[in-house]
């Protein structure tokens, strides 16, 4: 043990480490790994989006404060555990929620508050662009946000110098480079898989469509440059070092890998970037990424076409809502517990309640819920209205209540996945799942396996998610052998001895989920009525 401690201390001192920083929807996380890809230390910062003037957003102060807090906590953990102050790091990577809209002028001023992926305010733009490109442009995509702003004739448009994503912004803040990883870029504007750049024919069509506006830019001028996994994307500047480390111990010059979206780093974290593999990432939203053998035969509004961090085509099913409503119910149960004079850890409540769901009726006992805190594009619901419904004949007990909330967390996702597997006949050999929900053994994993009707594995790193994934991308950039692909690097080095717990679909669970989905689809009219008639409380 002492020898291991001494080795780690030496690695930290010599910068034989990689740092991954991820901006998730509810937590900013910093993870430092060694050359064997094991986590040395981590830090985090809890945050929450807010609805401001009709847009879901995070403010710049929280972005910078969260970055500093997560890094500082990680740094202090290193100092406490190994008795050494971090002054250099071998490589760094930044990951964040994909999509959204951050527009800046030439001075670096943010022109409108950050519009996150969660906004469902670009319906018209998304539809018009899908028709224009004959390629699905979801409401979340950056180009949909830009075009909707154009349709709305927003005043900031002539001043735009660059638009980027959250990961691109953080990377720019720390390195001065306006670049983006190809996986994140594929949620900004469609990618040409042969050139690994923005699709030029679609660029031309977009410019032609807006030329009457006479903006002082064409769209290619304001999009960040694309880099592929393994390339160096810039180095930490003096200003960047002082931003990330308030104690000013960290030295500039550290190389950064391309900034990536949470979809791509989730694929890396689960070693699912080869063809016919996939992963499911669970958090406030949920998405499944399936690496394709062949292109899809049609355009589907429920399915995004994106790429891996190395540029391979991927079918992505993204649902805006997943665990938020489940978290709210767990919070309510905790509040009750505390009102009874008891104290309990939230993780323990999760574990108890999720295990309870495994004793439920296969279909959830006739109960129905929608955890829509925001609009849901897959089901066509524009406003978030969390809803729980039952009939007098429903079997209303705690096990069924929890199973229903787990089912509905993956309900919209299943609709999209059914298109891939039942209509497009896409073959999926295996799925790897990651996210905090899978820290509790079996329950969430069984539900996902039932939803997709394929084997689902969870690795020991399931709870670390994209922060660990982007640390791996940073390590790949620094340590890869000449011409070594990301797929080979992951297979032969990162995951060679990794252990994963695999579960095969249970027939009763699959049948129960299908029965629940009939109720889910039929009940969407109820959810739509709630969105229309339940008025938001204005404080």
From TrEMBL:
Domain Carbohydrate kinase FGGY N-terminal: start-end pairs: 19-242
Highest rank taxon of the organism: Bacteria
GO molecular function: kinase activity
GO BP term, pick one: carbohydrate metabolic process
Pfam families (alphabetical): FGGY_C, FGGY_N
Domain Carbohydrate kinase FGGY C-terminal: 279-476
Alphabetized UniProt keyword annotations: Kinase, Transferase
Record has Glycoprotein as a keyword: no
Record InterPro entries: ATPase_NBD (IPR043129), FGGY_C (IPR018485), FGGY_Carb_Kinase (IPR050406), FGGY_N (IPR018484)
Similarity comment: Belongs to the FGGY kinase family.
Name listed for the protein in its UniProt record: Hypothetical conserved protein
